[in-house]
Design brief:
The chain has 226 residues and is an alpha/beta fold. The protein is built from seven helices and six strands. The chain has two domains: 2-55, no CATH class; 74-224, Nucleotidyltransferase, domain 5 (2-Layer Sandwich). The protein has helices at 2-28, 34-55, 116-133, 146-153, 163-172, 190-199, 214-224, and strands spanning 74-83, 88-96, 102-110, 138-143, 178-183, 206-209. The relative contact order is 0.16. This is RNase H type-1 domain-containing protein.
Length: 226
């Protein structure tokens, strides 16, 4: 029964990928390789299945509110917004301490981004670089892209379209004394999501130290409340 459901999902995703590739070719003159299309389909299918597993009764759901890190660890959340028409994205990143106080935050626009999957990977890479630049040594990264996080926590060599990004993140891990990567649902990633949306309005990177825009601060204060 499960195999039949997976087969149906695979058919739907394949049709969607073909339609998307056709539009790119007609409107942008960009041809999509078979490898790129298959990578997108399998990654999206994997993410759908993981989300489904997390929502099964009896499973631990991580779609909960933000919770603070322990001791001296800094928790960094990241997210991405993606505009398919302009092939652009924006990364939203926020770092908070064990009291829920904002240490730093940034939004970063990116151009020539092929799809939302790559946008999420770029946001993750930007978050790791951001933490390293700020000199954080014990960091807990959380985001709501299961596919990217799975690749980072896997011991196998990544061969997907985002492999250069994954490899760069793995190299940067050596800059930290302690570093963890974990998945969090959208409810726990709201501040980063809002920063990513704001980032799409700017043409250059924006940085905040110990503060964030008002709309994001409302989420931060809500997260800190019991």
């Amino acid at each position: 029964m499960r195999a039949d459901k997976r087969h149906r999902s695979l058919i739907v995703l394949t049709c969607w990928a073909i339609w998307y590739a056709r539009n790119e070719l007609v409107h942008d003159g960009t041809a999509c390789s078979i490898n790129k299309a298959s990578t997108f389909i399998l990654a999206f299918l994997h993410e759908l299945e993981t989300v489904e597993a997390l929502s099964v009764p009896g499973k631990v759901s991580k779609d909960v509110k933000w919770y603070p890190p322990v001791n001296e660890t800094i928790k960094i959340h990241f997210d991405a917004s993606f505009n398919p028409s302009s092939k652009s994205s924006a990364s939203g990143i926020i770092a908070r301490d064990s009291h829920g106080l904002v240490m730093a935050a940034c939004s970063h626009p990116h151009s020539e981004v092929a799809d939302a999957f790559i946008a999420e990977a770029i946001a993750y890479e930007r978050a790791v670089s951001f933490a390293a630049d700020l000199g954080f040594r014990s960091v807990q990264f959380e985001g709501d892209s299961l596919s990217v996080i799975k690749k980072l926590t896997s011991a196998t060599t990544d061969r997907s379209i985002i492999s250069p990004i994954i490899n760069d993140i793995r190299i940067q891990r050596n800059l930290f004394e302690r570093i963890t990567f974990s998945f969090v649902g959208q409810a726990g990633n709201a501040a980063a999501y809002e920063l990513a949306k704001l980032g799409s309005q700017f043409s250059e990177p924006m940085y905040w130290i110990e503060e964030v825009p008002t709309v994001v601060d409302r989420i931060v204060q809500r997260d800190r409340s019991p």
